[in-house]
Amino acid sequence: MERQKDTKMKILCLHGFRTSGSFLQKQISKWDASILSQFDMEFPDGKFPAGGKSDIEGIFPPPYFEWFQFDKDFMEYTNLEACISYLCDYITSKGPFDGLLGFSQGATLSGLLLGYQAQGKLLKEHPAFKFFISISGSKFRKPSICEIAYKDRIKVKSVHLIGDKDWLKLPSEELASEFHNPLIIRHPQGHTVPRLDEVATEQLREWTKTIIQSNTGTSPPPPSDSNHELKNGEAKSPVVAASCNKVQTGQLGTSGVLNTEKTEREVEAVQA
User: Fold this and answer.
1) FRET pair for 164, CA 20 to 30 Å: which of 185, 207, 266, 269?
2) Residue range 219-224: mean pLDDT, rounded
3) 16, 2, 81, 76: which is closest to 46 by C-alpha?
């Protein structure tokens, strides 16, 4: 699983519930190309065909897929183990991958893979993932999963895009809190891969640049163990946060119940 140093870093990109890899690729294409141009990106489809209506029907062509199924409280999961096995096989055969990117269900699943790998539960022969881009992700809620995946802070460089109107806003903040020194980019939209303004674009571009520099051995000195927050260019306290309208304070939620009633649709992702 060795890779030549002069090749691009590789990202595995996992789509949202009842969509597809090609749809996530379209969603990401709204970002400035310079953000991810230095990476090779793969967009596989979920293991299972969509078991019901997709929010993107009539907007983006089928087929649609899902990674696993879940109950209304997001406490019980069907086919999750089969999904994890499928992804481990994919990662092992198609990798190595340097990082993960996910939207919604894909981001939630990515966070689980990172936590499980950190605890030695899976992908023991695969190099440790270096980074994670989470868009509208959340934590699993079943205690038996949480006790392993989120046992310790996950020491993978991570950026979390969180929408002010997203029905998963609080769960997204809770997922970010499980990572060491996360960067949070806030945007005013809902449950979507957001369009980024100049400030957020620059924040994300600089973040990916540090990932590449770290990989090539040209990175600046590593940050201290404490988190930092940028507000008007001044270093402050806990978590780094940027808004698509302004750089702002990022507050992480410490509790809360997952709202299973969707108030925003994934179709926002293809709208202007």
Assistant:
1) 207
2) 46
3) 16
Q: Is 132 inside any structural domain?
A: yes
- Cα–Cα distance list, 243 to 2, 180, 189, 261 (Å): 38, 20, 11, 25
According to DSSP, the residues that pair with 160 across neighbouring strands are 134, 184
Q: Are strands 65-66 and 48-49 parallel, antiparallel or unpaired?
A: antiparallel
Concatenated DSSP letters for 164-214?
TT-TTHHHHHHHHTTBSS-EEEEES--SS-----HHHHHHHHHHHHHHHHH
Query: What are the tens digits of pLDDT across the range 57-71?
Result: 999 999 999 999 999
Residue 213 lies in a domain: yes
Q: Tokens 């340097």 correspond to what residue?
A: 98
* Alpha carbons 105 and 18: distance in angstroms, whole number: 9
Q: Which residue has the tokens 């992908």?
A: 123
Residue 254: closest CA among 154, 151, 171: 171
More confident residue, 188 or 236: 188
Which structural domain, as residue segments, surrounds residue 265?
9-270
Which of 1-10, 163-172, 219-228 is the least confident region? Answer: 219-228
Assign residue 110 the CATH number of its domain: 3.40.50.1820
Cut 0.85: pTM above it: no
Residue 136 has pLDDT above 90, yes or no: yes
Rounded to an integer, what distance in angstroms lies between the CA atom of residue 98 and that of residue 114? 12
Give the C-alpha separation, 107 to 70, whole Å.
15
Mean pLDDT of the region 26-39:
95
Q: Evaluate whether residue 29 is within a structural domain.
A: yes
221 contacts: CB under 8 Å, gap ≥ 6: none
pLDDT (average), residues 243-254: 35
Cβ–Cβ < 8 Å for 191, 268: yes
